Amino acid sequence: MKKLFLAVLVAATLGTSAFAADANKVSYKVKMSFESQFSDAKDITWNVTEMYTRFTFTLNDEKVEAFYSPSGESIGVSRAVEFKKLPLNAVQKIKKNYSDYTVKETIEFDRDGDREFFVSLTKGDTKKILKVSVYGSVSLYTPEK
Fold first, then answer.
1. Closest Cα to residue 67, out of 121, 11, 105?
2. Which domain range does residue 127 map to?
3. CA–CA separation, 53 vs 66, rounded Å?
């Protein structure tokens, strides 16, 4: 189930829009969980789907996204990071193996302290997403259905 959540979240975070919902659809549990975890958040917006609620906000002058299950449990937190901030060996592998691609976006995704990075690459109409560990291993990310 967590892998399915991760697949949905990566897709949402890397630019696939979710269905927007109004404030009345955010459950009390989800709202309370978010507010207790991010009491200093500013410019808060959210999207509610059947599987999760995504809050987009600013924290310490940085754009952040937080994801919660319908029961109010934190699924994970993501933020944009610079490609060059990935582990050095990962940057080298990606530059070597995907030299004809352009880095579109790089995000850090944190699930309860378990960090991973996702790099969106494009070449014409072709798009690839790479999964990068904190240790620098690089693999092609394929969402589970």
1. 11
2. 83-140
3. 8
pLDDT digit of tens for each residue in the chain (145 aa)?
Answer: 455 445 545 555 554 444 444 544 899 999 999 999 999 999 999 999 999 999 999 999 999 999 999 999 999 999 999 999 999 999 999 999 999 999 999 999 999 899 999 999 999 999 999 999 999 999 999 877 5
Q: 66 with 101, same domain?
A: no
Instruction: Return the CA Rg of the chain.
Output: 16
The reply to whether 93 falls in a domain is: yes
Task: In whole angstroms, give the CA distance from residue 53 to residue 74.
Answer: 10
Q: What is the pLDDT of residue 14?
A: 53
Whether residue 66 is found in the same domain as residue 107: no
Give the full edge-to-edge strand order of the sheet including 126-133.
Answer: 42-48, 53-59, 62-68, 74-80, 102-111, 114-123, 126-133, 138-140
93 plus 29 within the same structural domain:
no
Q: Same domain for 102 and 121?
A: yes
Helices (H), 14-42: 28-37
Tokens of 89: 């060996």
